[in-house]
Amino acid sequence: MKVTAHNHDEVSAKLTVTIDRADYKDKVEKQLLNYAKTATIPGFRKGKVPLSMVKRQYEAPIAFEEINKQISEALNKYVDENKLRLVGQPVPTPMDDFDHNKEQLSVDFEVGYEPDFKIDLASYTAPHFKVESGDKEVGQSIENMQKRFAEQVPQEKIGKDSYIALEISQIVEENAEGEHNHQPKNVTINAENKEAFKLVKSLEMDGSVKVTKEDLQSKEDLAKQLGFSKEEAEHLHHNELEVKVKDFYGLNNHELNQELFDKVYGKDTIKNEEELKTRVKTELDEYFQQNADVHFVNKVLEQVVEKEEVKLPESFLVKWLMYSNQNIKNETQAQEVLDAEKNAIKYQIIEGKLLNDNDIKLDYNDVLGQAEQLVRNQLAIYGIHHLGDDEVQKYAVEMLKDQEQVRQISSEVAMAKLKDVILEKATKKETVVTHDEFLEELKK
Questions:
Q1: SS3 at position 170
Q2: From its phi and psi, is residue 16 left (phi > 0), alpha (psi between -120 and 50) or beta?
Q3: Where are the CATH 3.10.50 domain residues in the chain?
Q4: Rounded Cα gap, residues 273 and 146, in angstroms
Q5: How many CA within 13 A on the CB side of residue 145?
Q6: For domain 2-113, which CATH number applies: 3.30.70.1050, 3.40.140.10, 3.20.20.80, 3.40.50.1820?
Q7: Domain 121-131+270-443 has CATH 3.40.30
Q8: How far apart are CA 186 and CA 226, in angstroms?
Q9: Distance of CA 212 to CAs 100, 217, 402, Å?
């Protein structure tokens, strides 16, 4: 068996896999003999079916499967050995005269390659901000800690400082048919949820107000504040909903004391308010700097995508789109899809080129470490900062049982490593800014 290449140009080629009958003949005959021993065919005892009958019935599909397997293995081996970076997947050329009894078969595949080009990261310059948190950001972060552990205070009526627990139920019409077991939604709002707050602010405990399906469809903010996505609002089964006040209360922020320090960071980790401010400022500066680093990397990548010439194997990609997507019926449709996706394909090629050229590789420990960080981030949202490393790892391992999570986290790790490379190699224009100034820069 051999694979030969005929290049159409520098980014596309035809690969021909040639397989001799001797490559697969013995394996096919072995499978036929095994089948003859176990086949159950009316009129014959088990294991006594004539081999000639088994061959007539099963030789062609068994040979086709074995040939297909060996051709795929040969093609993949050729791609790996020659370090070909394919765009899309190989597209087989249809065969009109497939005959497994031929002494030799040849199967053609159209392939597209990534172009060969170099990216000099040092030639790219972008602003690199050093973002410093001030008293405002530190104070807000500490206040958020106090709110997270605040004490609920009963109220006689709803006021501008109230938190309101709502139950939203669909109202089933008298003549409605079918199942009506729609679970109510439960949400808690405050004055920041302006549309929902305006709807219920005059109600008393257990008071309710009705809204229509049309209200939710026309007022996206109201729908969102009542717990409905745009899709849910469009597909409600009934025309009216009841919004009922189940509870309302005020909050007394937790005192700034040792009890709060221990709840947030663990016992005796923080001893006084000055230590808390120092710890919070350090955490905020680290977080802001991570965002600033990402901003720098994104700006560099934008320039790379804009300036680098990346030749795409367009003729091949049209064929690949038609082969891989049954909804694309002709070349005109395929070209339209390709035109819409060109920038995304170019970005993927550049990203892959940077990963490959900078020898960025992943291992399990990288992925596990990122999963553990995600667990810590999620726990921090709920004010849990001191769970032991063993417990965090247990949650992370459980997370990695989901293959989609593995794929997503692996991508994040690869991009984090690429970020480090770009931070090291691209040219930085250093600027010190406040957090507010950085937010304004992001808006641009």
A1: strand
A2: beta
A3: 151-252
A4: 13
A5: 23
A6: 3.30.70.1050
A7: no
A8: 8
A9: 67, 9, 39
From the list 281, 163, 268, the residue with the least C-alpha distance to 260 is: 268
Tell me, what amino acid is at 21?
A: R
CB distance 111 to 90 below 8 Å: yes
The two beta strands, 240-252 and 427-434, are unpaired
Residue 179: the pLDDT is: 57
* Per-residue pLDDT tens digits for 289-322: 999 999 999 999 999 999 999 999 999 999 999 9
Distance CA 426, CA 122 (A): 4
**Amino acid (1-letter code) at residue 397:** V
Q: Could you give phi then psi for residue 124, rounded to 5 degrees?
A: -105, 135
CATH topology for the 151-252 domain: Chitinase A; domain 3 (3.10.50)
What the block records as the tokens of 346 is 């170019």
Q: Could you tell me the two tokens for 237?
A: 């089964």
CATH 1.10.3120 in the chain: give the residue spans.
121-131+270-443
Instruction: Quote the pLDDT of residue 375.
Output: 87
- Residue-wise pLDDT tens digits, 345-355: 999 899 989 99
Contact 212, 168 (CB under 8 A): no
The one-letter amino acid at 225? Q
Q: Coil, helix or strand for 233? A: helix
Q: Residue 17: count other Cβ atoms within 10 Å of its Cβ.
A: 23
What local confidence, expressed as pLDDT, does residue 247 receive? 96
Q: Where in the chain is the domain with CATH 3.30.70.1050?
A: 2-113
Please tell me what DSSP assigns to residue 149.
Answer: T
Q: What is the DSSP string of 76-110?
A: HHHHHHTT--EEEEEEEPP-S---TTSSEEEEEEE
For residue 209, the model assigns a pLDDT of 95
Contact 50/136 with Cβ under 8 angstroms?
A: no
Task: Give the pLDDT score at 139.
Answer: 95
Q: 254: exposed, middle or buried (C-beta count within 10 Å: 0-12, 13-18, 19+)? A: middle
Partnered with residue 152 across adjacent β-strands are 251
Q: Which positions of the chain have pLDDT values less than 50? A: none
As a whole number of angstroms, the distance between CA 109 and CA 89 comes to: 10
User: Tell me, what's the pLDDT at 294?
Assistant: 93
Strands annotated E in 234-334: 240-252
